[in-house]
Every structure is written in C-alpha cells, then in structure tokens.
Amino acid sequence: YKQLKIQIPKQDQIDDNQDCHLVNKCLVLKHQLYPNYSQKEHQNFKHLFAERLLQVDEGMFTNVPIETIFCPSLVRVCGREYRGGFEGTTIENVNLPNLTTVEHYGFWRCSVKQLFAPKLQHIGYFAFANCSLVTVELQQLKVVENYGFSRCWKLKRANLPSVVQMCAGAFCDCERLETLRVPKLQSVGNTVFNYCKRLRIVETQLSQNEFSCCSWCKCCVVCKQQLHKAQLFGSITNVKELKDKQIKIRHLMLALDKVH
C-alpha cells in the first residue's frame, strides 16, 4: 500500500494552536474523543490529523471533502443510516492500523481505493458500499453485515480468511469480483453474490445448498448452480497466492464442465 501523502503539521504548529484549529487546510484534533463535535464549524479542510483520536462518532465527517487522514490510534468508526463517520468523503487511502470496528455506513460512498486495517473485525451495514476498492485483504475480519461491500464496482479480489458470517447482500452488485476467499465461513445470508457476474473462484467450506439468490439475478454462480465448480481446494494464505492459483483452478473448472 502506498504511504499517505498528508502534510503533517510541525510539532510547534500543533502546540501553538488550540484544539480543533486548521493548519494549512489540515484539521488538528488533540483529544481521544469528541462527543459534541460539530462539523458545521469546519468545512474548508482537506486533511485530518488526529494522532490520539480513538473514535469517530456518527455523522462526524459525513460529506466533508476530506482527502487524507492520519489517525493511527483510531479503533472505531461509528455510524447509522446516512450518518456514517466518514460517509461521502473523498478519502482514497485508508491506513488505520488499530481499527477494529466500522459501524453502519462508516465509509459509504467514499473514494476509498486502498484499505489497510489489519485488526478490523466487524463491518456494519453498507460500511464500505459504493467505494472504489480493487483488492480487499482483511486477516482478522469476522463479520460482514448486510451490504457491507455492495456496489464496489471495481472490486476484483477479496481475501477474508477469518470471516465466519456474511449477511445479506454482502458483495451484491460487485460486478467485477473474480475471486473470494472465505474458508471459515459458517453463516451466510441471501443474495451475497447477487449480480457478481465475473465471480469464478470461491474458497468456502459451505455447500451450494447453503447459498441463495434472488429470482431476477440469474447470472451469479449461485443462480447458475455452479458454486461447486468455483470452490478451491487446499490452503491459500493471501491474495497474491490466490491470484497465482487462478490458472490451475480454471483448468479444474474446465475438467468439471466436461464431467457434468
């Protein structure tokens, strides 16, 4: 992942300014929590420097044109319908090494292309829906709630080795999604692959009968009853290795086509 191109204010600039002040179009937040923060006071900034911030409350930065963030201590991004913490921002690179939870609509309709959150465990409704992600690799993620990654039209690969639950529509309308790894998946909602037209490789321990789709899709591996052909065998530890094995799996799929 590329390093964030954020112009971090100098220490003397931070010390000389009060909390919640702007420095070179960068909003500086000095505390861990901001329960009474009002974004109406700050609209003309592009960068966020919040070294100690632990939680972004619902609606805190909704539709604010933030481009880059530096929040190394951030643990939770809160949100509810149309009030996601970073909803509608123009952030492209999300690098949050201590993030564990993104609640409903947390990054909905963002410009996120790259996501680095090695401790992320829970994703709420529409948390990353309508983003520009191309690849997702989240080693500790366990739960993807309804429509968590839906309508990520550029998403091609997802490696989620610890996920045990995917709720309804988790990846629906991800039309470019080709490979998905969820080897520990135990519970799955309906329409998780709705309109995933290019999905060909899936690693899961669940059977075809445990997946369901809608009557009008008719183009995903579930609707075509081809999930058994898309399942991977063996252990794959990362997205790169998953990509390297695609050719072998395609040969396997061709062989299965001949048998069936």
From TrEMBL:
- Superkingdom, according to UniProt? Eukaryota
Per its UniProt record, what InterPro entries does this chain match?
A: LRR_5, LRR_dom_sf
The cross-references to Pfam families, in alphabetical order and at most eight, read: LRR_5 (PF13306)
Full protein name: Leucine rich repeats-containing protein
The record lists the organism as Trepomonas sp. PC1
